[in-house]
Amino acid sequence: MTEIDPLPPSRRRMFATASLASLMVAALAVPAAAQVQPAPANPAPAEPVQALPGAPENGPATIAPEAPPQSEDAGPAPDIVVTGSRIVSSGFAAPTPTTVIGAEQLALNAQPNIFNTIAQLPSLQGSTGVTTGTNSTSSGSQGLSSFSLRGLGTIRTLTLLDGQRVVGANVTGVPDISQFPQLLIERVDVVTGGASASYGSDAVGGVVNFVTNKRFKGVKGNVQGGISDYGDDESVLAQLAFGTSFLGDRLHLIVSGEYAREEGVGPGGYGEEGPAGRDWYTTATLVNRGITNDGAPQFNYREHAQAYQYTRYGLINAGPLQGIAFDANGQPFNFNYGSNGVPRRNTNGDVAGCYVGFCIGGDLSGNVGIGTTLKSRLERYNGYGRLGFDLDADNEIYATVNISQVDTSNQPNPGAAQTSLTINCANAFLPSAITGLCAANNITSFRYGVTNAILPNIEVFPSRKQYRFVGGATGKVSGFGTDWRYDAYYEHGENITDITVNNMLVPRRYLQAIDAVNVNGVIVCRDPTARANGCQPLNIFGGATPSSAALSYLQPANGPFQHTRQTQDVFSANLSGDPLSTWAGPVSIATGLEYRHEFYHVTSDPYGNGPLPGTPYNDLYPFDPVLNPEGNNWYAGNYHSGRGSYNVLESYLELNVPLLNTPTLGRANLNVAGRATNYSTSGTVYAWKVGGTYDTPIDGLRLRAVTSRDVRAPNLSELFAAPIAVTVPNFTDPFNNTSVTITQNTIGNPNLRPETARNTELGVVYAQPSWLPGLSLSFDYYKIKVRGLIQAVSAQQKVNFCQQGVTELCGGFFLQGANNQGNFVDVQPFNLASIRTEGFDIEASYQIRQPLGLPGRFTVRGLATHVINFVTDLGLPGAVPVDSAGANSGNTPSWKWLTTETYTQDEFSIFFQQRWFSDGVFGNQYVVCQSSCPVSTANAPTIDFNRMKGAFYFDVGGSYTLTKALNAYFKVDNLFNRDPTPSPQTNTGVDINPALYDIIGRVYRVGVRFNF
């Protein structure tokens, strides 16, 4: 491996104090670039710093990252050994591809949350953050920043802190990156392949490991502010860290504190009014003609679609009065349906000239899709401390504490739309003109739809508090003629999550309140029992502001609430060494044992949960005979109480055996590992891997391959989920071809078994050839098959499959309730499905010293991922596997790449970044045709247009060294303000996909960093 001459120490310190670490890497990912430094004369205690990504020979990178920023008296830095396995041995080359993101790259991207930088990697697909899940009330995942590798989901990516597990911030078990001590992150190591045999359950897609600086001395900080081009999403970041030593440099203390706030982007209005002047929302919808066999496509892509079941201030949507709407003043008028639509005035509410459920154009004021928060507000506080004591030059005991809080908020949708209300013609709020039309048409009631724009909008406030404590020992001892490195720790973590919801409607009370009559000249609720329990009448014909008494009755101040306490206790011990040697080199071994206990307990309010023991009705939630005593009384956010726990005991053994080491034939090694894991809930499961690398005689050329069996056991949520009930309007009853409102109950399944996966990777690396030492190239093919996938079909899929004859799914739902009362569908996970995906990664970098004779360095790097297929099979009779590769409505575009170019010298740097993904489709299941179409089916529906443009984003940043200890910087994301491409729904929901597209727009950030 050819080394690049290091900078002089004084110059290196100058770059370090600027907190950009010389910017010599200048690429977002530095695959396996960590260079083994010579052992210092007085080495840091314990073994070299172990990280997940590949050893110096493991990847294509040629440029060693600078040492992390330190003050002048920080002392010698420890060795850095980067490995995608548990083996820690000089010269070891792991077969698993790995990417390293250094502190300098994190600084270059200047994000208020380290998560945003890492999530840009092409191999990370489907990660969750502040722009995803914003339409959710009950998931508990709003604002949760977690990674997903290969599009396999956050629950199949293992995220570690210093190689240790972190308590989950959600009952799915995934941690929240916002709770990590971000200023002290030295690098982030990303293993893009199955690693269960080495690192345990959940590492099906790979591992993301955050490595902190454990020897920092001095004081450093960062202050940053940002704002979007639209004047929103203001952000503030303040970070400060301090490190010192005592007792002759044997006792080391590091503390850090952080505060960050991102205001987010709130909701737009009604119709197509985007927030803060954003004008890209077009209500793109896949409208259903309802005809499957006339030679024309069943589905049509249309923009400016208008649902004709409701409007902003109310619409009579069936029967002889269909088409009469109400304006803000409560005055009736003939609704403009668009598409020259004419109401048929039948009991189904059909509209001639329009599609099933939609017209195009006309009065769009009732559309509510853009009324959802685009980006959740996020505020985080983080405190971290580490105290380490050197027992001697090789051994250390330590303790860490991490206490953090993350508060988020979002608006899932405006009001609480109703589509099939039955209104009595004697309603006291009806205009006399409508009462007269009722009499003229000999009807006593009519069907009505309204968005309930007069009600305050729902607001969700999740708050997560983490308390994490670790005590451990690390170092090396001698025995049996070799040095043995050990690492043992105990971790106790707790995460307390409170979800509070404001302005949530109680539908049963709503039905009582809108049924108003005139009694002795006073308008009251018709039902005397409801009146006696506080019912206040509500006028839903127009835009009249409800009285405070009515709002208190409909939307109690003590809305849905859920309190979750989740704990994790881990004891882990690992040992590695080189007990013997062959003619080809040392045989390395790693072994270890881990015990883990996971527990959660959730309590909820009585209106959602029902008055079970421990949650009785009380003064805050008084008993009301109108309510369902079993709970599920909220429009959404019907949290239920529950608890669950499991224990895990696992052990592993890993070997690295050199097979070849000659100047003429090259060097080869075999790496194997096995792990046995016993779960108290599902028994014993085994994981293994077999791989190797071959350094060919060709200068700089290496081959690598690995195949593994990886596992993921069901998490607490899948096993013991406290039932969550959500009201779902516009649910299609396929038995009667009608639209109904249901309660969807999500429940756990304690009989689940572990998932198993087969992961195979083949790669070639061409790194630092002697003829061009600044060049690095790699190509890695991957193929993953996950079996026994734990997955639940959606409520609509469950009912549809039953209607199509899949009798296994014909239990657990009811759809025939009068006025939608009692309608429900239970959703539960099973080991039915499978996922098969394959593709390849390409990485390339090149660095030039003194480009064109100029001082400094220029570096260019590119990373790309191509997804060949991503096939999900539900495993149900009649279900056809769906390939979502290239479906830009999801997480796995066909191509995704990231490139960076950086020029840096002593005083300043300039940084350019390009993010791109390819054009795609709405879904691969569609058959595109304009005429002579085949018969449209559920598995192969016909459509007239099926294309989603990809996106290209250009970012620019730079920095300037003001003094030795002070550095100023700027960053502009999405410089050309590229708008998102519509991702059409089959309803008028939010027609964007924040998992792929930037929905914020151009963002400016400036800041200063200091290091003393």
Automatic annotation (TrEMBL):
Keyword entries, A-Z: Cell outer membrane, Membrane, Receptor, TonB box, Transmembrane, Transmembrane beta strand, Transport
Compartments in which it is found: Cell outer membrane
Domain of life of the source: Bacteria
Sequence ranges assigned to domain TonB-dependent receptor-like beta-barrel in this UniProt record: 557-975
Family annotation (Pfam families): Plug, TonB_dep_Rec_b-barrel
Cross-referenced Gene3D superfamilies: TonB-dependent receptor, beta-barrel domain, TonB-dependent receptor, plug domain
Keyword Transport among UniProt keywords: yes
PANTHER family per the UniProt record, alphabetical: PTHR47234, SECRETIN_TONB SHORT N-TERMINAL DOMAIN-CONTAINING PROTEIN
Protein name as it appears in the record: TonB-dependent Receptor Plug Domain
Organism expressing this protein natively: Sphingomonas carotinifaciens
Source lineage: Bacteria, Pseudomonadati, Pseudomonadota, Alphaproteobacteria, Sphingomonadales
